[in-house]
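lol forgot to send this yesterday, sorry. struct tokens for the thing we talked abt
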């Protein structure tokens, strides 16, 4: 029988593509032999990068850590619109994409900078009358979603190679990068979906040095627990 956790703090994991955030939680529970494990901010299955895993009394600061700003690098693919706004969805629309005008791209990104409202996608964990939207989407239902006030602190167009655009974005909590790519594609007149995504930072924590899934599965238990950042250290990192 798995016991209450003797460990308290945060474990930084570099999530691999093809698995859910809950899959990572399950692995940590198994490796540390404790049920008191959670995560701070879902990463979609196709996405990779930093996932903050809270262990033991670390779960008490879960909401606080989830509220912090995030940094992502990603790739959007113009000319292909999907029902999930990412590469895992069903294609709804295709358009030919010629040479990409850099000035137009810069203008489109600039439109989604600073404060604005973002409507969450149907395929999301947000609940409508107690039912997650993604479950309603599976039933072919589309319901009204309340737009969310979000903020983009910084963005960078890293590369243009038609039909793809590489970018970096620093954003507030509750931000959907899928929707960001979708809306920028629409602004450019081609439509788009999110083809790749990697979370590189969350608050003061970065993906550099985070445990890979392979390491999480294969390292001795002591090596994993030695990577847990203590609650006092977390407080100092956050300047509390």
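and heres what i got for the seq, position by position
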């Amino acid at each position: 029988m798995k016991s209450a956790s003797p460990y308290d703090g945060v474990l930084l994991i570099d999530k691999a593509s093809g698995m859910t955030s809950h899959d990572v939680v399950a692995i940590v529970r198994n490796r540390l032999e404790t049920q008191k494990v959670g995560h701070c901010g879902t990463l979609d299955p196709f996405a990779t990068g930093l996932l903050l895993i809270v262990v033991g009394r670390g779960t008490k600061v879960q909401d606080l850590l989830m509220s912090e700003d995030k940094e992502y690098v990603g790739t959007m693919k113009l000319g292909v619109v999907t029902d999930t706004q990412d590469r895992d969805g069903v294609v709804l629309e295709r358009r030919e994409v010629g040479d990409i005008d850099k000035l137009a791209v810069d203008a489109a990104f600039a439109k989604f900078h600073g404060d604005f409202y973002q409507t969450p996608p149907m395929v999301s964990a947000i609940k409508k009358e107690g039912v997650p939207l993604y479950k309603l989407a599976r039933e072919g239902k589309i319901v009204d979603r309340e737009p969310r006030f979000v903020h983009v602190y910084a963005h960078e167009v890293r590369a243009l190679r038609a039909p793809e655009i590489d970018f970096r974005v620093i954003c507030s909590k509750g931000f959907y990068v899928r929707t960001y790519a979708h809306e920028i594609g629409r602004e450019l007149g081609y439509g788009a979906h999110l083809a790749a995504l990697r979370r590189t930072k969350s608050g003061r924590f970065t993906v550099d040095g985070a445990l890979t899934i392979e390491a999480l599965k294969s390292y001795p238990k002591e090596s994993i627990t030695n990577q847990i950042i203590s609650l006092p250290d977390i407080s100092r990192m956050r300047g509390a």
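The chain has a mean pLDDT of 90. anyway ping me if u want another try
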